[in-house]
Amino acid sequence: MRATGPLSFHIVDLPSAGVTVRGEITFAQLEIPPDGLFSFPHPVHYELHVTPVQDGVLVRGALRSAVVRLCDRCLDPCERPLAVTDVCYHLEHVDGKVIHLTEGVREDILLVLPSACLCREDCRGLCPTCGENRNRTRCTCEQAEVDASPWGGLDSWRPPLDG
Ligand SMILES: [Zn+2]
Ligand SMILES: [Zn+2]
Description:
Strand content: 35-45%
Shape: rod-shaped
Structural class: mainly beta
Helix content: 10-25%
Order of helices and strands: EEEEEEEEHH
Bound molecules: zinc ion
Oligomer: single chain
Radius of gyration: 27 Å
Number of helices: 2
Number of domains: 2
Number of strands: 8
């Protein structure tokens, strides 16, 4: 077996014990572009074991990387590890052919991208009034809001006793 490209392998002379391939592939090569939420400064490291089975090959192994995602509350970037430890692709009738694992890896990675993220459990988020990151600055908006509220005076108001 020999590599013909990133995550592409020509299936020839595959020993019965299989072959382990290790390497890395970028998110750009996987056609996963960065967006407003995610950026991908690290490649995906793969370690895959390709074994011949009766009707083709079995590919098992693991993928590891780390991505940067914005915190849901304060929008600070936080790095999150990614791992897929149960990669399993079964490809049929591939003897003498080139197999492409990019699509499978792409789907596996997309499934483990974090759907929620907090930079820390007690992230205080952004002030809705002035936009300050409350983890870093203690703005005075909250206090000013309470003072300026038309209902602020109600706290001290008591109905008059009428008899
Ligand atoms: Zn945060
Ligand atoms: Zn504020």
